[in-house]
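Tip: read the tokens left to right.
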């Protein structure tokens, strides 16, 4: 049957389904109106869709919203957050703290809804993971929610293939995402949909709100493609519901998705933004701003609702929604826990892995096989050292999985041990992922893997972190321990030229709150970087690695690489006395800086070398340690890094010297570029001497012709 605001409300307006739908609608209206900010139109139109899904199909227990085999619901149209908050409130979802202990308080109280978009409310403007229990991922930037849902679906299939055993189907959850025209216009949405179709993710369902409206007006202004045909071309099953208020048709579409075993499903739902009435009543104002008092009263009158009451929740609606969710989802969860108990008795090692995975706790001895690299003047490229470390760790942490955006042969991010395998439509247990040339989606998909508690990594060239910035930012905002592996980390890529030479990218990474930068100086610093990043539970890491070989330092002569854990450490000091000049460098520039130190020492100049692989970690150290590494009294300082000079003044001071990039690079052999831009031992030495007032610094570079000679 079609359930909406009927012409004769007296006849059917008090049906529990309709009463529940109108409660969701009016809670959303009142929340937006109270805030005088937000988007009421989509919650009003899609309340029947969300109600049908949550009440009849979603396998979710409000009493334990972190149950491992729950279905996931992603509100990719994050501007419609009032819809999700209303559902969380009416379902009586219980708060869970960061230690996965049920707190017992409501995830969203009625007071939170009353304080929608206000400071400290559990109802911020867009849904935020870790802030509001029951929110599966942070959404708002359009396209990222649906892309993240692809990672969740991949994780579910991987967990099933890896941990399910005959008679023990521990993992069979589905992933639903509610999206709109904006999500499908964004490039990341197309990337993710293409990947999902290729992988035949049959546990993934996107519900597309086909309301033909955006902020500027009708979608005809900029969007006229046939979405159904497009997704059929991607390899998706496509369902169509002609009226968002038709609960029976919605049920048929959701059942068809559950029956689909070979393809992801797109359900196209035709809706009218605003009132959701069958006569197409609605208002453009309902899309991006509150209705206003007069329109609110008119809407409530249309729904047969008390016009003068706000945040009105009939008792029977609360009992119906929360009771129904608990009876169905709670029963499924309890049966699953009983199954898990029997599984643990039969497969204790696998059950231990699942417990550790859920709590982000590493296996005992996870670092037992980490290599140690001997001193070597020729050295090892950062990417090559990282490949060895990655494989050593992955064999000890069975849920560490990831892949590259079509660059694994170059960035050495492939898991090469025999049982690793490739994740595909034919092999769901493979641990090597292939994202294709889809950098933005790759980072968002990796977020979905991490949200499903896998230890995920995604790899690419540092230059292409530009394409990923939105998704990387969300990994930091959600506090996900994601590993972003970036190789080809400087102008050292040489002949590829400025289009492929990252200059400002390290500075951009360091500017992002919560994202840890790590740029190792040699193979042993790569090892120590992994010792730092693997135990992290709430911080993503951007690990920047060289393409070219880096000399492996003699750690019997210089300080141990374990100093990486503190972000910066004294690598070399004067043989006698306190330093009079400090040389600070990262990554591939450490070797030439150490050479400069040796020359300065031979000349009787007391120099200190500081390796600073992570500004973020160093900044987290006590002031006493930072002053120990960089004594305030020593103002003669030189920093050396093949990247933007932005941010280095904090460490060298207003009188220090910065050897870095103030332009884009150039296409030439690496040694030529180093000479051109002043990354030479000679320039470091002369700059240090100038800091001490001994000589004037030489020019920061020489001509290409001179360098070639």
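Filled-in amino acids:
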């Amino acid at each position: 049957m079609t359930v909406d605001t009927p012409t004769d409300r007296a006849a059917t307006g008090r049906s529990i389904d309709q009463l529940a739908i109108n409660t969701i609608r009016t809670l959303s209206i009142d929340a937006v109106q109270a805030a005088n900010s937000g988007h009421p139109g989509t919650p009003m139109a899609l309340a029947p869709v969300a109600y049908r899904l949550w009440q009849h199909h979603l396998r979710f227990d409000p009493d334990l919203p972190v149950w491992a085999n729950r279905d996931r619901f992603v509100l990719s149209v994050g501007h419609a957050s009032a819809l999700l908050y209303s559902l969380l409130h009416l379902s009586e979802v219980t708060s869970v703290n960061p230690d996965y202990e049920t707190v017992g308080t409501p995830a969203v109280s009625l007071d939170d809804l009353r304080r929608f978009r206000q400071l400290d409310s559990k109802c911020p403007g867009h849904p935020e993971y870790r802030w509001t229990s029951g929110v599966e991922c942070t959404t708002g930037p359009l396209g990222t929610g649906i892309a993240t849902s692809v990672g969740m679906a991949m994780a579910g299939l991987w967990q099933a293939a890896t941990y399910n055993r005959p008679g023990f189907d521990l993992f069979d959850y589905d992933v639903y995402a509610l999206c709109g025209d904006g999500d499908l216009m964004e490039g990341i949405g197309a990337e993710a949909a293409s990947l999902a179709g290729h992988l035949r993710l049959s546990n993934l369902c996107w519900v597309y709100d086909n309301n033909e409206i955006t902020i500027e007006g009708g979608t005809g202004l900029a969007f006229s493609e046939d979405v159904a045909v497009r997704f059929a071309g991607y390899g998706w099953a496509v369902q169509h519901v002609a009226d968002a208020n038709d609960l029976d048709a919605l049920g048929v579409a959701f059942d068809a998705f559950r029956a689909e075993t070979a393809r992801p499903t797109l359900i196209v739902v035709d809706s009218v933004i605003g009132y959701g009435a069958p006569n197409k009543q609605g208002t453009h104002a309902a899309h991006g701003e509150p209705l206003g008092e007069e329109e609110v009263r008119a809407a409530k009158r249309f729904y047969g609702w008390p016009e003068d009451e706000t945040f009105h929740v009939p008792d029977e609606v609360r009992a119906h929604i929360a009771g129904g969710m608990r009876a169905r989802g709670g029963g499924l969860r309890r049966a699953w826990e009983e199954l898990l108990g029997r599984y643990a008795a039969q497969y204790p090692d696998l059950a231990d892995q699942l417990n550790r995975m859920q709590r982000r706790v590493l296996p005992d001895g996870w670092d037992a096989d980490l290599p140690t690299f001997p001193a070597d003047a020729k050295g090892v490229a950062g990417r090559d050292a990282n490949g060895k470390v990655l494989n050593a760790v992955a064999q000890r942490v069975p849920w560490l999985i990831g892949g590259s955006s079509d660059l694994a042969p170059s960035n050495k991010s492939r898991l090469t041990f025999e049982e690793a395998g490739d994740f595909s439509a034919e092999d769901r247990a493979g641990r090597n992922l292939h994202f294709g040339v889809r950098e933005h989606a790759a980072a968002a998909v990796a977020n979905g893997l991490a949200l499903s508690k896998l230890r995920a990594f995604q790899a690419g060239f540092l230059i292409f972190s530009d394409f990923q910035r939105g998704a990387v930012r969300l990994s930091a905002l959600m506090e996900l321990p994601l590993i972003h592996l970036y190789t080809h980390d400087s102008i050292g890529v040489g002949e590829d030229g400025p289009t492929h030479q990252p200059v400002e990218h390290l500075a951009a990474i360091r500017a992002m709150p919560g994202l840890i930068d790590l740029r190792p100086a040699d193979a042993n610093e790569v090892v120590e970087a992994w010792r730092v990043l693997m135990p992290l539970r709430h911080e993503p890491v951007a690990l920047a690695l060289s393409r070219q070989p880096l000399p492996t330092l003699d750690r019997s002569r210089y300080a141990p690489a374990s100093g990486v854990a503190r972000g910066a450490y004294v690598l070399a000091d004067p043989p006698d006395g306190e330093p009079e000049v400090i040389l600070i460098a990262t990554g591939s520039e450490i070797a030439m800086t150490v050479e400069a130190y040796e020359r300065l020492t031979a000349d009787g100049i007391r120099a200190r070398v500081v390796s600073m692989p992570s500004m973020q970690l160093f900044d987290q150290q006590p002031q006493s340690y930072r002053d120990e590494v960089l004594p305030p009294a020593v103002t003669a300082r030189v920093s050396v890094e093949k990247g933007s000079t932005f941010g280095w003044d904090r460490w060298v001071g207003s009188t220090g010297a910065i050897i870095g990039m103030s332009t884009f690079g150039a296409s030439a052999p690496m040694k030529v570029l180093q000479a051109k831009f002043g990354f030479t031992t000679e320039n470091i030495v002369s700059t240090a001497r100038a800091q001490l007032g001994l000589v004037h610094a030489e020019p920061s570079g020489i001509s290409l012709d001179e360098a070639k000679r």
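The radius of gyration is 28 Å. Residues 315-346 form the longest helix (32 residues).
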